[in-house]
Amino acid sequence: MMLAASTCAANLAKKLAATGITDTEVLSAVTNTPRELFLDGALTHKAYENTALPIGQGQTISQPYIVAKMTELLKQSAPKTVLEIGTGSGYQAAILAQLFPTLCTIERIKSLQIQARQRLKRLDLHNVSFKYGDGWKGWSNRAPFDGIMVTAAAETIPQALLEQLSDGGVLIIPVGEANQQLLKITRQGDKYHSQKVEAVKFVPLVNGDLA
Ligand code: SAH
To answer: Coiled coil: which residue ranges (predicted)?
Structure first.
């Protein structure tokens, strides 16, 4: 299977455009990515709804709007090397891999990681490196990253991720527990500038042991 536009995915992209996503390359990536491939058979009829859905192990594939929004925010700084924390289904990774030259992605649940790797291979996306590990620690021997996207909510901002940003690099991260805020943090030398984007709802970023 290759990446190809489908009517359903094109309709989803139209919905996202109507909710404020303006970057045409991000919208094209949504149009070209078969979201049903990232879901369990029983849920494929919901694949092009603008909602988060369960992917097993208590985890979720993020809402398409938030996938597109976070990607758009990251793309503003034109990163070459990107790190994603929380591979999950692999859908967000598939979008990122179409827009940026090099993607590294970390997942702490092995079974999800194995499935995600197979899906990206099937879509002929080969610029992605997968790591089974704890995303709180980042990926030090692949750092620095021009962009880091965390797709689970952290109680606090992981220090390792700040350190692994290149100068001018951008970290997109949901922070908080019951009330979460999406933050865009930009590194300038040893200084970090934080900007609130909007309220969000993500599964928690687990700190510590692997599943
Ligand atoms: N980007 C994913 C969203 C998955 S939900 C997608 O497009 O489907 C968040 C994911 O983060 C879950 O799969 C969860 O297992 C993973 N996760 C949570 N804490 C983590 C950690 N400390 N390190 C790596 N992955 C983590």
So the answer is: none
